[in-house]
Amino acid sequence: MDTTGGAERGTTERVLTLLGLLQRRRIWTGPELAGRLGVTPRTVRRDVERLRALGYPVHAGQGVGGGYQLGPGQELPPLLLDDEEAIATAVSLLAGAGGGAGGAVAGGGDAALRALTKLDQVLPNRLRHEVRALSGSVEFFGQGGRSPVDPEVLMKLARACRDEVETGFGYPSGAEVRLRRAEPYRLVASDRRWYLLAYDLDRDGWRSFRVDRMTDVSPRTWRFSPRAAPDAAAYVQEGVASRVYPHRARFLVHASADTVRDQLSASAAVVRPRGDDSCEVLSGGGDLDFVLMHVLLLGHEFEVLDPPELKGRARALAKRLRSAGATTAAPVADGTPAGQEHPGAGPGV
C-alpha cells in the first residue's frame, strides 16, 4: 500500500497547525510546540524550516526567554485560514463592504470590498462557492456604527438563509421569551442593527427580527420551499422607520432624495425619489406632531400626503408659528426688550 500521500497530508496539516500556533502566541519553546503537535523537538525544527522555505520569517531565540517567534515582514505570505475562519472573515468583510460595520473609519467600505475581492481570489473552490452563496443572504441599508452581535449567530442565520432550512429561536414577547419558528430569508444590516427577515410560521406572515434579541438560534434539518418574498432591505427599513410606530405619515419634500437622505438616519425614515428635485418621506412616531416637526426642521418646502388629519395639525402649527413671529415683546423698566439679555449680564444671571 502506498502511504506517501497520507504522510504528506499529515505533514502539511501539522505544519499548518504549527503556523496557527505561532500566529496565536508571540513566543513558543520547542518542547511546548512538540507537546502541542505530538512530535519530537527535532520534528518541530524540521517543520520550522519548512515554514521558512515557504517565506514565513520564523525566528529562533536561545537561552532563558528564548523560543520560536513568527516575525513580521514584507515576505510574510497571506494568512492561512481554516474553513470556519475563512467564512467568518468573508461575512465580516461583506458587512463592512455593504456600509461599514463600525462605520467610523473613512473609506472602510471600499477597503473591505478590496479585501473581500482578494480573499475570494485565494480561497479554495469549495470555500469560494460557500462564501458567495452566503453573500447572497446579506443585504444592507444605511451606514453607521451597528450594535455588536454574536458572529456565531450571524453565521448560523446566514447558513440557514442559504440552505433554506427552518430555524427556531427564542424572542421576547412582552415580559416573556417565546419560541419562534421561521423560514429565514435574508439578513439585513441597517445603520444601527442587524435584522433577520423571515416568514413567521406561527403568525403566518413576514416578520423582521432583531438579531441581538434572538436567543438559542437552532437551524433545523428539514428544508422549505422559498415563498414569494418582499425586497428584504426595503421591507426591514420601512418596518424600522414606520411600521413599528402607532402613527405613520408621508410627506412630499421639495428637495432631492440624496439631500434629504444626508439629513435623516436610514432607520428614522424611508426616502424615495420623486424626480430630480423632490422626494417622498415615510416616517413614524408615537406622536404625529413630533414627526411633523422633524420634517419641518429639515428646512425644505414640503406637503403632507398622509394621514389627512395631519394637514389640519400642520395648519394649526403654522398659525402658532405666525403668531409667535408677530408678537412684539413689551419693554421692561430699563428699556431692554423682554427676552434680551441686559448689557453686562453674564451667563446664568
Task: Describe this structure as you would to a colleague.
It is a single chain. The chain has 349 residues and is an alpha+beta fold. The chain has 3 domains: 7-70, Winged helix-like DNA-binding domain superfamily/Winged helix DNA-binding domain (Arc Repressor Mutant, subunit A, Orthogonal Bundle), CATH 1.10.10; 83-233, no CATH class; 245-325, Malonyl-CoA ACP transacylase, ACP-binding (Alpha-Beta Plaits). The protein is 41% helix and 22% strand. It contains 11 helices and 12 strands. It has helices at residues 4-24, 30-37, 41-53, 83-97, 108-122, 125-135, 151-163, 232-243, 257-263, 288-296, 308-326, and strands at residues 58-60, 68-70, 138-140, 165-173, 176-189, 194-200, 205-210, 215-223, 247-253, 269-273, 279-285, 302-306. Helix 1 packs across helix 3 (41-53), helix 4 (83-97) packs antiparallel against helix 5 and helix 4 runs parallel beside helix 6.
Question: What's the β-strand tally?
Answer: 12
The amount of beta strand, in percent, is: 15-25%
Protein structure class: alpha+beta
Number of domains: 3
How far do the termini sit from each other?
97 Å
| Secondary-structure element order, N to C | HHHEEHHHEHEEEEEHEHEEHEH
Largest sheet: 6 strands, mixed
Shape: elongated
Which spans of ≥5 residues are poorly predicted at pLDDT below 50?
1-6, 98-108, 339-349
- List the total number of helices: 11
Mean pLDDT across the residues is 79
Helix content: 40-55%
Radius of gyration: 30 Å
Keywords: DNA-binding, Transcription, Transcription regulation
InterPro entries: CBASS_pafABC_assoc_protein, DeoR_HTH, HTH_11, PafC-like, Tscrpt_reg_HTH_DeoR_CS, WCX_dom, WH-like_DNA-bd_sf, WH_DNA-bd_sf
Protein name: DeoR family transcriptional regulator
Pfam family, one: WYL
